[in-house]
Amino acid sequence: xxxxxxxxxxxxxxxxxxxxxxxxxxxxxxxxxxxxxxxxxxxxxxxxxxxxxxxxxxxxxxxxxxxxxxxxxxxxxxxxxxxxxxxxxxxxxxxxxxxxxxxxxxxxxxxxxxxxxxxxxxxxxxxxxxxxxxxxxxxxxxxxxxxxxxxxxxxxxxxxxxxxxxxxxxxxxxxxxxxxxxxx
Length: 184
Prior knowledge:
GO terms for molecular function: ATP binding; eukaryotic translation initiation factor 2alpha kinase activity. By secondary structure, the chain is mainly alpha-helical.
C-alpha cells in the first residue's frame, strides 16, 4: 500500500526531527538542522520557528494555538491517512465534509470501516481530541509497519491488543461512530 509507505516515511521524520513535512525543500532544511523557514512579505522578512502555527488549517490539531509538536503532527497524520485511503474526491466540498465528519465524530466512508478496519482504528487513535492520549510517532510507525506486513484478519486482532482502550477518553456515545466489522 503506497499510502502506508508514505505515512511510514513521514512518521520517521516526525520521530527523528519532531516535525512532519512532505515538502522536499523542508526535508533538506531539516537535514541541515535548520528549523526556521523564511518568507518574504513586502519588505519585511518573517521567520517561522519550531512550535509556531504553520500548515493547512484543515489538518490542524484541535489544541492549535501555536502548538506544533509530535502530537499535533500525529493528529494531522490521521487526516492525511484518511485522505490517502479514500477514493479520489470528486469535489472540494466532498473532501472538506469527509475531513470535518472525521474530526467531529470519527465518521469515515463505509468502505474504510468495512474493508480497512485496522487502519480506521489506527486513525481514531491518532485523532484523539486530547494530545496526551494520542500515540507517539514511534508507536504509530510500529503499528503502520505491522499493518503493512500482517494479513488483514491478524492485523485487526493485533491492533486491538495494542490499543489500551480502558483508560482512553472517547467521544460521547451520541456522536461516536462504531465501526462495522465484516463477517469472518
